[in-house]
Amino acid sequence: MSREPLRPFRDLARRAAAVPRSLRNRSRAHRPTPTSSLAPASRPYVRALGLIAVTLLGAWLGLLVAGGVKTPVGPVDTRMSLHLTVSGGTQIDVPPLGALELETHQAPLGLDVDVNRLDPERAQALVDHPERISGLETQITEDVRDGALGLAVRSCAAVVLGATVLGLVVYRRPRRALAAGGLALALLASSAVGAYATWNPKSVLEPKFSGLLASAPSLVGNARNIVTEFDVYQQELARLVTNVTKLYDAASNLPTYQPDPSTIRVLHVSDIHLNPAAWHIIRSLVEQYDIDVIIDSGDTMDHGTAAENGFLDPVEDLGAPYVWARGNHDSRSTQEYVEELENTHVLDDGRPVTVGGLRIAGIGDPQFTPDRSVVPEGDPAERAAGRRLAAALRAAEARGEPVDIAVTHNPVAARQTDGDVPLVLAGHTHRRETEVLDDGTRLMVEGSTGGGGLRAVEGDEPQKMMASVLYLDQESRRLQAWDSITLGGLGLTTAEVSRHLPEDLEPGSSPSPSDSPSEPSPTSPSDSPPGSPDPSPAPAGSPSRPPSD
């Protein structure tokens, strides 16, 4: 049977089957997709928000990786950097002391300043030339300005590079990456404009302290007074040194004791506390008194830091051997530095040294307490150190090498040597006194040759500067007499000298000042410069402000 008669039926079936398929296709074409109505309107905002997020993240990464600059600010080395923030401001970190915050500006960028270290050379320059303190503010201002300029240039490059690289990683299209970099630069520029518009120069007067610096507000006033007084003192320094050179002439006319050329002359100094004027005074005394040996009973430093060590360099050129014992403000690092200097002898552990015809032994202070952050061990530690020194003195005498002079920093330790040495020298108290102990040893405690350091001007009157010249017989190496020398404190121009004999004190007598002048030689008022205080010298043994240590 032919298939032709069935063809119309097959065509009709195909048409019928095609109808539902067409209807299904038509319904699919008109069925709305979930995002078809929203995509055209939301896609630009999504892209913009994504670009902003990429830009901010890239800028932050750029600042974090390459946005900081190292720049010197005065005597310290710092690292300056920017960070994203809401309130702006500046934070200065001074490890390990703490930090201070300044409300310098209002912008989405904050400034971080990290103090990395104190540069020894620049710090030493200030110590050697304290007159430069008056120009330090201008120098710091210029350093900060230069550092801020370098930070601005580096930050621009860091944010543009960071945003561009991140944009290239995310979008993989150079045009989008460049758009992110340009946007980052625009945001940084607008933040800089905002910081400039809201700059508050008075913010430095109202800092917020944290850490150990939290006590700084109570010290700012004293610090300002110290700088002011020190500037005045610098103007008087030349006249003060001139007064010192007159002391020898005054002392040579004292009739009680006339040292002969063979007499061994020892200059005892102590507690210089970083006062550079002390070196001028010591050098002048060495020259005028023809000193054979200088003995320093410690606290030459103030905090015992490595940056302070260069302060000791002048001891090489003082004109006499320098014998030194560690004080409680002197660190082991300081002791190692002194040992490397020429013309110096460090006393410790009772090991005797022979200098200028004298056998001298001493021990360093067992305590290192440069500030109140260190808990002192107290007198028991000092007595233990004194007993070790006394044992070393007895051992030296048993070897047939008796020690002529013992040296400690703390008088508590010195008292333990009673009966084991004719003379023991100490410091620490910033008060001069002399006592013959029960077993015959003479204890001589020197005042502060540095006048207590720069802290001396914190009180109503600056501390006096003290030193003593000891005369010892060349044959017996016993003390024959001593001159007590007292100078007016910072900014004052008074000078006193008095001579004393060992017979002035008897064994077992109570401690008493040995420097009430028998023949004072204060500078006359006519020698004082205009505007300086009228000299009214009190006895050098008058009580002075107790030291802060």
TrEMBL record:
Residues 519-549 have a biased composition (Pro residues). Residues 19-40, 498-549 are annotated as: Disordered. This is Calcineurin-like phosphoesterase domain-containing protein. GO terms for molecular function: metal ion binding; UDP-2,3-diacylglucosamine hydrolase activity. It holds the Pfam family Metallophos. It comes from Streptomyces taklimakanensis. GO terms for cellular component: membrane. Residues 264-431 form the Calcineurin-like phosphoesterase domain. Keywords: Hydrolase, Membrane, Metal-binding, Transmembrane, Transmembrane helix. The chain crosses the membrane at residues 48-69, 151-171, 178-199. The lineage of its organism: Bacteria, Bacillati, Actinomycetota, Actinomycetes, Kitasatosporales.
